[in-house]
Design a protein that fits this description.
Oligomer: single chain
CATH superfamily of the largest domain: ATP-grasp fold, B domain
Structural class: alpha+beta
Bound molecules: adenosine-5'-diphosphate
Radius of gyration: 21 Å
Largest sheet: 9 strands, antiparallel
Low-confidence stretches: none
Shape: globular
Length: 393
Amino acid sequence: MRIFAQSTWMDFFSSDKVLGILGGGQLGKMLLYTTRQWDVTTYVMDPNPQAPARLACNRFVTGDLMDFDQVYQFGKNVDVLTIEIENVNVEALKKLAQEGVKVYPQPEVLEIIQNKCRQKNFYKKHGLPTAPFYEFSSVEQLKEAVAKGQVSFPFVWKSAAMGYDGYGVAIVRSNEDLDTLKEGACMAEEYVPFDKELAVIVCRNPHGQITTYPVVEMEFHPTANQVEYVLCPARISVEDAQAARKVAMKASEAFGHVGLLAVELFLTKEGEIIINEVAPRPHNSGHYTLEASYTSQFEQHLRALLDLPLGQTDSKVSAVMVNLVGKAGHQGAVYYKNIDQIMTLEGVNPHIYGKRETRPFRKMGHVTIVHPKLETARTLAAQVKETVEVISK
Ligand code: ADP
């Protein structure tokens, strides 16, 4: 084992040093479980004064994450700065990094990832496997390419900027579908008739130590384009799992990021592993680690940010995570109907993020079910999904 004798960051424990987090949603909130456990001082900034992370941080600032001055002023008062959402002002992060603030993930990494076209070009440049794509500066240009037969149906339209939870993504099968696309720079990606969607969470510390978590499998809601279940381990062969971890490691090495990198992958029907996209932060596909792993993704992220040795990523038990999302047709003050009923089930761990208002398909919480047998956990997860309803009062 390598010992980091020279580490300078140990003094975050019970000290005046500050970790800043841009974004105060559920990812920030769960990161704060570990900062509280370790008595690490944290400041959080989020535009919403009611953001889930407001209660567990040491200082909460209301601010616009895309505004240069507000991000810069916030960052000036912290020693290490991280994000829990990609859409933040990168120019401010660059200036802070120049002035000596440790910004992780590095602004240059974030800049690539913020723009889907730039991200895809990065994979191409580094020989990382990904689906072929064409870039366009407008939907008009895309339509012309379709008319000329350069792009054919079906394909996947992806908006270059500001996509989130499938909102900037659409499968285009006809000319009518083309008319529904949002204006702006975009790409047309080859439609991948994949067998499974997988994810591997990688973590890298400033010394270049890299760990990968076991491969997880994501099951999607058939219409909302959102993850419904995450299963760990993925129900794939040992060879496919090894290949997935290898591709994820290679992506991590290419980015040279510090902190977590969640690598979303497709396992194609031909048995190939290709990258869909990455996120340089804690990820929905790693929530299960809170109950099932030796080291949670949040603790691992914090270890990397504070320049500490990384923890063990193995699972202690199988797990299935179910997202609790707002029911269609419900908007307003939230009510978790029947949540008491699932508490009698074996291995059930509910997480409620603390968002007061529900909206259709808004991520409001999740439930992790742990069990020695993955299939039993999956059955229980379906029961949880059918029982709990996230509705308005
Ligand atoms: P977001 O950034 O909004 O999460 P993604 O790029 O992950 O968007 O796409 C959302 C979902 O759309 C994916 O999880 C997958 O189910 C589907 N998808 C994305 N790209 C493709 C593709 N090339 N072929 C088939 N399905 C795709």
